[in-house]
Amino acid sequence: MEQVSLAEDLAKETGQKTNTCFSCMKCSGGCPISFASDLKTHEVIRLVNLNQLDRLLNCKTIWLCAFCKTCKQRCPNDIDASLVMDWLKSKALELGVTPAMPNIPIMYQTFLRSVEKLGRVYEAGWIGTYKIKTKTYTKDFKLGLKMLGKRKIKLVPGRIKNYQHIRKIFASARLGMKCRKEIK
Amino acid sequence: MKYSYYPGCSLCSTASEYNLSTEAICSKLDIQLIEIPDWNCCGATSAHSASAYLAVALPLRNLILAEAMGLDMVVPCAACYHWQRVAHNEVINKTPVGQRANEDLAKIMGRGYHGTLKTKHIMEVLLQDQVLELLPRKLIKPLNKIKLAAYYGCLMLRPADVVAFDNAEQPNSIDRLAQALGAETVRWSAKVDCCGGSFTLAESGVVQKLTADIVSAAKRGGAEAIVTACPLCQANLDSRQKENENQMPVFYITELVGVALGMPEARKWFKKHIVNPVPMLEKYNLL
Fold this sequence. Notes:
Helix content of chain A: 55-70%
Number of strands of chain A: 0
Structural class of chain B: alpha/beta
Order of helices and strands of chain A: HHHHHHHHHHH
Structural class of chain A: mainly alpha
CATH class of the largest domain in chain B: Alpha Beta
Radius of gyration of chain B: 19 Å
Largest sheet of chain A: none
CATH topology of the largest domain in chain B: Rossmann fold
Largest interface: A-B, 63 and 61 residues
Largest sheet of chain B: 4 strands, parallel
Oligomer: heterodimer
Shape of chain A: globular
Strand content of chain B: 5-15%
Number of domains of chain B: 2
Number of domains of chain A: 2
Distance between the termini of chain B: 29 Å
Number of helices of chain B: 14
Distance between the termini of chain A: 11 Å
Order of helices and strands of chain B: EHEHHEHHEHHEHEHHEHEHHH
Shape of chain B: globular
Strand order of the largest sheet of chain B: 2-1-3-4
């Protein structure tokens, strides 16, 4: 079978034509998390075009993307780099690559588990599960107490009536992922 | 004016004062909000990171529920607004993920999405001519020219081809409403910067830096307080200011509308703020 390039593969699934990038760096210039990331946004796009999947799946940047869409808004070629990051994240999880920022995917997964169970996110449960899974109980402890004192966080979970709808949506999402794997 | 109302998860917990103030001011301004029965989480910052399908299918269920009510949808949360707009676009543009999600939901719910619904951010609703004409007659406590930095953040502005009710780089909707309430808004440089969103949990250091930059830009601009229209922006700016610094109150725009309309329940909303805005408002005789 003919080898499909990373850029083509990505374009097919996300609609983002990374090959049109001419490295003007407006994306990296506007990126709010570039100070914390190891690859700048334009470098991620460049590495996609150079087929460097390994480096991309092991970098911090894909996890640190805050999805603020500044890059997409300013790109002269209308590339949405945040969708490229999302695709790379799910690729990393699919291929079992250990994330360079492991707490971030745990945060997303615990959030989604709450939504799958209840149909809405139950913040106290979400944050609690996250803290247990990442063993970060003491971080932000003071702020947590302050927020509880102000009753900012609701302590009783509520479930929507047709929560079965949400479970079925999640089941379809999982089915889709499996299909993608099988195609390869 | 009658709308279906999608509060979203944050407005039922950390941002309940945004919900209370939105409902209170809308009823004063003859805007009827009917909560969408049995709405679900839009997936917010997490769904898209896991699966593009989930990020469309979750908000799509809400669109189907609201469409069945026959009333355009109002959303106060920037992220919920963004994702509901994205789901609408994916379906009407017939993208593969939009089509698949709509077919699946038609099976699950017995009704698919027909693309007839308009989803509006609360700012769009409050800036309609009818409301702006009504507002001056209802103002009891004009905001006394307090200097505000209007902060927009990310998802209510970007990407412009999806959300598009304000200018993505030079927005002015919050400024216009704050001015209509009698406040002054300052020129400042961090209006459309990102606060780091949900990273406040996993990467608080990143959010600390981003919020510190935004708050100091607001101070340099000469503002006494920040006003926003997103629950995550408010939570991050409000909770991540350093204790040993001169702290700035961070308002929801709807709270300030409530203050200007002379609503006594406003005091209750402010109990939830980490940086207490009451002294500032009392100083100007607004509470």
